[in-house]
Amino acid sequence: MLKGVHLTLMIGPAVPVPVPNEVLDALTEVQVTSSDEGPSVFQLRFTLKTNSPLHTAFLLAGGANIPLVRVVLIATVNGSPQPLIDGVMPNHEVWAGADAAHSTLTITGEDLTRVMDYIDFSGIPYPALPPEARVILILAKYAGFGLMPMVIPSVLIDVPIPVQTIPRQQGTDLTYIKKLADDVGYVFYIEPGPQPGTSVAYWGPQVKVGVPQPALSSANLDSFGNAGGSTHNFNSDGKKLPVLFIQEPNTKAPIPIPIPDITPLNPPLGAIPPIPKAIEPIEGTAKFGPVRAALIGLARAAISADAVSATGSLDVPRYGRLLKPRGLVGVRGVGAAFDGLYYVKSVTHNIKRGEYKQSFKLARNGLLSTLQQVPA
User: What average pLDDT does this structure show over 7-22?
Assistant: First the structure.
């Protein structure tokens, strides 16, 4: 690997262990994608001799005798270890190599949300339990995988009375937890770490505040540049004004309520937001109470507010650390309109021998920076 960068690969049923040197020597390419939407996915590519026993070992690992094989990938940059993925590998592909003596084995997998989507637990009752208690109870099944729940109680207090109704699970654990999150305008995802073999299962509001990561500096800054090939886009047509409807209890008349896209958890990252050019009715909220409808509306409004987007790549050794998704990062050297803080929507790690790069997608809700300078 590169100077200052060390890669650790752990594979095994239930409890992963470091792979032997023979496996590491055969590993030629790694790709891991983490985003604020959907599961984290990974791909490992090995170049093996055609008669290598590793072919059989990997294929058996994904067979019926060992139903779940975990993969943990850890990148240590300048002495700081960071788990990139903790998941399972359900898919294997073998391709012919450059010569008759070698072939390429590609392993594709997802994070531990894949494990939560295998078995349908429809019908399990949860009497007198609010949504957050149901989420904690469901996640307790996966403690053996090192899954630690981080559940933020909703301001919506909705404890069903058993003599009136008993909530029952619908679908797999992943499907049901995501439904409970959608019902109150929350998100659900699994983030690897902080220690190898552990992961944090987050169920709560999407947060776009916090300490910004070191700035991504454009190549225009010469020796200070660490990000190359970045493009920035402003799409004012994408901005819409979300409007939800609630029912007046007595007359049942619908009452339209415009929803702002700026909240304490979704602050203005741009000084000049675009003007909404359309109204977007939020359907299905009339049957809910005002608080629950407002939570769902605020979550929808935050998504449509991101009119500014950016894509690019960075060299990890030059950046000196890993860029993390679901956080803030500064951008400089692009121009006054696009410099400033952004929310990191997704990050893809591309690792080859002698090379470690990250491609990223950023977003924010306006032009011009709200800060005079960003953290370097």
Answer: 87
- Please report which helix (H) or strand (E) contains residue 139, including its range: helix 131-139
The pTM of this model reads: 0.88
Task: Name the nearest CA neighbour of 193 among 114, 129, 277, 111.
Answer: 111
Residues 6 or more apart from 177 whose CB is under 8 A from it? 116, 135, 138, 139, 188, 203
**Residue 332: Cβ within 10 Å count:** 22
Residue 83 has pLDDT above 50, yes or no: yes
Predicted confidence (pLDDT) at residue 65 exceeds the cutoff of 80: no
Is the confidence at residue 59, as pLDDT, over 60? no
- Residue 370 burial class via C-beta count within 10 angstroms: exposed 0-12, middle 13-18, buried 19 and up: middle
Return the structure tokens found at 2.
């590169």
Q: Which residue has the higher pLDDT, 290 or 332?
A: 332
Residue 92 has pLDDT above 90, yes or no: no
What crossing angle do the helices spanning 173-183 and 131-139 adopt, rounded to 10°?
Answer: 160
Are 97 and 21 in a shared domain? yes
Residue 245: pLDDT band by 50, 70, 90 thresholds? confident
Q: What share of the chain is helix, strand, coil (3-state, %, to 5)?
A: 20, 45, 40
Residue whose C-alpha is closest to residue 290's, from 246, 256, 242: 246
For residues 38 and 92, membership in a common domain is answered with yes
pLDDT of residue 139: 97
Alpha carbon distances (Å) from 9 to 22, 49, 87, 148, 233: 12, 20, 12, 22, 37
- Decide if 143 contacts 188 (C-beta within 8 A): no
Q: How does pLDDT run across 33-52, given as a tens digit for each residue? A: 999 888 999 999 988 776 67
231: tokens are: 């493009």
Residues 36 and 183 in one domain: no
For residue 53, the enclosing domain spans 5-111
Classify residue 374: in a domain, yes or no: no
Is 376 part of a structural domain of the chain? no
SS3 304: helix
Which of 65, 88, 111 terminates a domain? The answer is 111
Which of 151, 103, 153, 158 is closest to 130 using CA atoms?
158
